[in-house]
Design brief:
heterodimer; A: about 120 residues; mainly beta; four-stranded antiparallel beta sheet; B: about 110 residues; six-stranded mixed beta sheet
């Protein structure tokens, strides 16, 4: 079925790194740009990053630019997020998100939780 | 950076109409999308491109967008509509995607 399944979350100390992955299935992965969106506990949604369908372009929220890197492996239908220099305020549930043909986010994963704490 | 402002909460009685606003500078020139998020669940797209509904979304959900305000309207509100709602746009000037601050809809 059509789904996105994130993995890789956990508890990490400030300044450390973590790599998230998202396994996509049920649709033609290499046709779509893909996003990461996060939600801190009790807070709203925050867009994190996007990678184009062919991997040639990436854009990041100002809050993560220079620390996070989004990538994709179309041979494995996988989206990744490399998170370096993690901060306490990066603590959030991270969702992998697929846009529809009109750009709206029409498929969301359940998310993987990242907790940054000493 | 582009900012979208929503009221923190809206309360409505069952069967009545809930209107959730999303304010942004000249938002009428952008395509606005709306998401519903129930507790401990991933968000669900309920309106895209200002007023279109994805398949499976009831006709009770509708949207409009003009000037500096976009609006999500939920007609004949049901208890199952109780959730957080977020508007979202793409800011072409920065290539960033922006979410509104979110509105909690409470069904009385």
């Amino acid at each position: 079925q059509v789904q996105l399944v994130e993995s890789g979350g956990g508890v990490v100390q400030p300044g450390k790194s973590l790599r998230l992955s998202c396994a996509a299935s049920g649709f033609t992965f290499n046709k779509y740009g893909m996003h990461w969106v996060r939600q801190a506990p009790g807070k709203g949604l925050e867009w994190v990053a996007v990678i184009s369908y062919d991997g040639s372009s990436e854009y990041y929220a100002d809050s993560v630019k220079g620390r996070f890197t989004i990538s994709r492996d179309d041979s494995k239908n996988t989206l990744n997020l490399q998170m370096n220099s993690l901060r306490v305020d990066d603590t959030a549930l991270y969702h992998c998100v697929k846009p529809g043909d009109r750009g709206a986010f029409d498929l969301w994963g359940q998310g993987t939780m990242v907790t940054v704490s000493s | 950076s582009y900012v979208l402002t929503q009221p923190p909460s809206v309360s409505v009685a069952p069967g009545q109409t809930a209107r959730i606003t999303c304010g942004g500078n000249n938002i009428g020139s952008k395509d606005v999308h709306w998401y519903q998020q129930k507790p401990r669940q991933a968000p669900v797209l309920v309106v895209y491109d200002d007023s279109a509904r994805p398949s499976g979304i009831p006709e009770r959900f509708s949207g409009s967008n003009s000037g500096n305000t976009a609006t999500l309207t939920i007609s004949r509100v049901e208890g199952g509509d109780e959730a957080d709602y977020y508007c979202q746009v793409w800011d072409g000037s920065s290539d960033h995607y922006v979410f509104g601050t979110g509105t909690k809809v409470t069904v009385l």
